[in-house]
Design a protein that fits this description.
The complex is a heterodimer of chains A (281) and B (383). With 281 residues, chain A is α/β, with parallel strands linked by helices. Helices cover 37% and strands 17% of the residues of chain A. Chain A is built from ten helices and nine strands. Chain B has helices at residues 16-26, 41-53, 64-76, 87-102, 130-135, 151-168, 178-182, 249-264, 267-270, 290-304, 322-331, 345-352, 371-382, and strands spanning 10-15, 29-34, 57-60, 80-85, 107-115, 121-125, 144-146, 171-177, 184-189, 232-234, 273-276, 283-286, 309-314, 316-318, 334-339, 358-362. In chain B, helix 3 runs parallel beside helix 4. Classes of the chains: A alpha/beta (281), B alpha/beta (383). At the A-B interface, strand 2, helix 3, helix 5 and helix 10 of A face helix 2, helix 3, helix 4 and strand 10 of B.
């Protein structure tokens, strides 16, 4: 039996490790469909991920993939993108990986406006390690490390990305597969630092401890609370236990890092070879 | 013939850190990512000036973890890549250094050692990271680390570090120290055709290529990203194709043995050392890096005074010539070990040489022994 996306899935790597009812497969599906619909050369795309459930995605795509250390997908991607600007470099990872241990790298990559698409699967907890509290766990939620309810305040990833100057920012839920796919297409064609957050159910860990019910029920609940709004300012893109604002929040133009970097390298190397700048010790 | 911008042939008077940066560029390094730290910052600063001139990339990252991560990405993208740091930054890099060994990613890491632990003495020399260079990241792996003792060697051994890194497809660590990094002395940069530069072996075609299938000397050829190989690179235990094998003891054994054996079994090709007057030496001084510079004139002076003294200097700190050191230890009455730490490489020598014959002389901070003090130590051992 063949699947229309088979040629984008790495041979020998399926079945994946994700639990029944997990939304990560929907995100992978939307990404592969976006690549397919844009007609991108899959040999010129590099998928970089960190550690965690979503971190496994770089092994499932039939493209170059790097499964890096925990939190370090973005700086590895920066090394690749600056060295080979012609490659499309996509970081796909989870909320804990990108925003707890890797938060500093997100901050500076967005600030530099380097041409990367970062897709964050936000499942509100550390799924792979057994459902611990993370930087996006809602207040009062129960996890294995907040047995009496979370006393911390969660990060709003959209608002954070906006404050850092990301040029394209969107948030979707896996209950919006078509919008997600179109948004990934926008992110893949955009030049600059693009960020897409995708709310996804962790049935096994987060859902079970917070009485989200069986997978269909959890998904139905997400569909109710995740509402799409147009023209909302990132500061109003609330993400709360009973309401999550989705949509596109920013799409602007700004000078891009690898362009500026290579413009400078070309200018200086040409001047140096023409003897217009002193090359000496 | 137009002048080569990447090999500034001629006689110069420069700092060790600058010589290191020039050695990297001469070796073909075209990517540097780093974070400012004393006493290695001059390497980054010089790279920021020089790399764009030769079409290379200089990136200042947000920390040392990002620096080594970007170096790993650039190496897979096909560039020779390097970072430079000192103790605190070297500590931060350890996890990704382990990832680079696991994924067999060539790169060069320069650690201009200062005093530690912690912030220690940023502007003073040390040799306190030599064990960290070997054991700093978790898991079993074997490393290659080189120890320069002059400005000229900051140039020469940086080239050597790149060549070893490309040959064995692994990180190579250059363990300099603050004095060698900041010292100014003569540097001779040879003509380009006199410099041996090794390029990584690449796979011949996409079909049937396995990125971790050992080739010559247990080293797999390395493809680069973006050329249709559809590489999968993971820090998980993996098979020859790169697929995760996180539960198989057989896969774990096969991979770990090969990662270690490609260094262990090639040790004779990798090891570099230097010997002075060892033929009939009764007193042998072992010293590397900065203390070697005091040891050599002391041994020469001892010889002039009729004392049968000799000097052994390891240039690769990892791996070392174990058999040679055993021979030396069997013949000598006394072996003096000089280090700018409280006994690190000493422990290795104690495994190969009768510990009762070893006299250890540690030094702390700037207080390295003068040649006269080393000579006095040699004379005391004669009694």
């Amino acid at each position: 039996m063949t699947h229309p996306l088979d040629r984008y899935l790495r041979p020998g790597m399926i079945p994946h490790i994700w639990c029944p009812g997990c939304g990560n497969g929907i995100i992978l599906n939307a990404f592969l469909r976006a690549v397919d619909e844009l007609g991108l050369d899959q040999d010129k795309i590099v998928v970089v991920s960190g550690i965690g459930c979503m971190g496994r995605v770089s092994g499932y795509v039939n493209m170059d993939g790097l499964h890096t250390t925990h939190g370090r997908a973005i700086p590895v991607a920066i090394g690749i993108k600056t060295a080979r600007p012609e490659l499309k470099v996509v970081v796909i990872s989870g909320d804990g990986d990108l925003f707890a241990i890797g938060g500093n790298h997100f901050l500076h990559a967005a600030r530099r406006n380097i041409d990367l698409l970062v897709i964050c699967a936000n499942n509100f907890n550390y799924g792979m390690t057994g459902g611990q509290m993370g930087p996006t766990t809602p207040s009062k939620a129960y996890t294995t490390t907040t047995p009496y309810g979370n006393i911390e305040h969660p990060l709003n990833l959209v608002y954070l990305a906006a404050s850092l100057g990301a040029v394209y920012i969107a948030r979707w839920c896996v209950t919006h597969p078509l919008q997600l796919k179109e948004s990934i297409k926008r992110g893949l064609t955009k030049r600059g630092f693009s960020f897409i957050e995708v709310v996804t159910p962790c049935v096994t860990e987060y859902g079970r401890r917070n009485r989200m019910g069986e997978p269909r029920e959890f998904m139905r609940r997400l569909r109710e609370i995740c509402v799409i709004r147009r023209g909302v300012d990132p500061s109003e893109a609330v993400i709360e236990a009973d309401r999550i604002i989705c949509g596109e929040f920013r799409d602007v133009e700004k000078p891009e890092f690898t362009q500026l970097l290579w413009d400078m390298i070309r200018e200086i190397s040409e001047k140096a070879s023409r003897g217009e700048i002193e090359v000496a010790l | 013939m137009s002048r080569r911008l990447d090999v500034l042939s001629g006689v110069h008077f420069v700092q060790g850190d600058i010589a290191c940066a020039e050695g990297a560029i001469a070796a073909g390094c075209r990517f540097f990512a780093g974070y400012p730290i004393t006493p290695s910052s001059e390497i980054a600063q010089h790279m920021a000036v020089r790399l764009p001139q030769v079409g290379g990339i200089y990136l200042q990252m947000e920390d040392e973890i990002a620096s080594i991560a970007a170096v790993i990405g650039a190496s897979w993208a096909g560039l020779k890549a390097m970072t430079a740091t000192s103790g605190p930054g070297f500590s931060l890099m350890q996890e990704n250094i382990g990832y680079a060994y696991m994924t067999e990613t060539p790169c060069v890491i320069v650690d201009v050692m200062r005093g530690g632990p912690s912030t220690g003495q940023p502007t003073k020399p040390g040799q306190q990271d030599v064990m960290q260079a070997k054991w700093g990241s978790h898991g079993d792996y074997e490393v290659i680390a080189l120890s320069p003792a002059s400005v000229q060697e900051m140039f020469d051994l940086t080239i050597e570090a790149f060549n070893l890194s490309e040959t064995y497809r692994c990180p190579v660590i250059l363990l300099a120290d603050e004095v060698i990094g900041h010292l100014r002395e003569k540097l001779i940069i040879p003509e380009p055709d006199e410099i041996e530069v090794v390029e990584r072996r690449r796979p011949e075609d996409v079909e049937d290529y396995k990125p971790f299938q050992p080739g010559e000397n247990l080293v797999p050829p390395m493809a680069r990203l973006g050329e249709g190989f559809r590489l999968y690179i993971t820090g998980l235990t993996h098979d020859e194709a790169g697929r995760p094998r996180a539960s198989s003891p057989e896969a774990q054994e096969r991979l770990v043995r090969r990662l270690c054996d490609k260094i262990r079994l090639n040790r004779d090709r990798i090891v570099r050392f230097e010997e002075h007057h060892l033929e009939d030496a009764e007193i042998v001084v072992i010293a590397y890096g900065l203390p070697y510079r005091s040891a050599l004139p002391a041994v020469e002076e001892a010889r002039r005074r009729g004392i049968r003294a000799g000097l052994y200097r390891p240039i690769t700190l990892w791996p070392q010539a174990e058999e040679r050191l055993r021979e030396i230890g069997e013949r000598a009455h006394r072996v003096i070990v000089l280090e700018m730490n409280y006994g690190q490489m000493l422990r290795e020598y104690q495994r190969w040489i009768d510990p009762d014959r070893i006299v250890f002389s540690p030094s702390f901070g700037e207080a390295i022994p003068t040649p006269e003090e080393v000579l006095a130590l040699i004379k005391r051992c004669m009694r």
